[in-house]
Amino acid sequence: MRTTFLMLAAAALAACSEAPSEEERAAAVAEVEAHQTPPPEQLDLAPIRYREIEQHDLFGAGCSFAPDGGGLAAVALAMADTGHFLRGSELVTLAADKGSSELPYLARRKYDGKAFSMVLDLDEAAGRQSGEETSDYPATLTIRDSNEQVVYRKAGIAQCGA
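-> structure tokens emitted (162 positions)
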């Protein structure tokens, strides 16, 4: 009896002191990696030029956003049905969130896509007319990635018009 007990105790100790197998290690690493959120990519938006507007038929009413210190070039467009920005040379198109607030000239406050979402916050009370059919508003553009991490946030001017 005593021998059996010692053999069982020795087997239990040996089982506890054994290192995990490669399969067990790989499974543990995969589980940890699956629960990690990568750091957010910081977007550096490129100006949307007339070439992109013409190529992608981005004409119509809405708001264009230009960040402070970036000149007059718009880096994002907020239109009735879609929102757009250039990520490098790739035009990212988002769907208007029809449940979000309507901004001047049919633009929406929020736009959603698979990899990004975009929110354009305007100070409508501080808007001023800048042209026959345009008005400028102090604004903030925020873009989040699919993990809801902020990848772009800048203050600037939103010019809304037709």
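The chain has three helices and ten strands.
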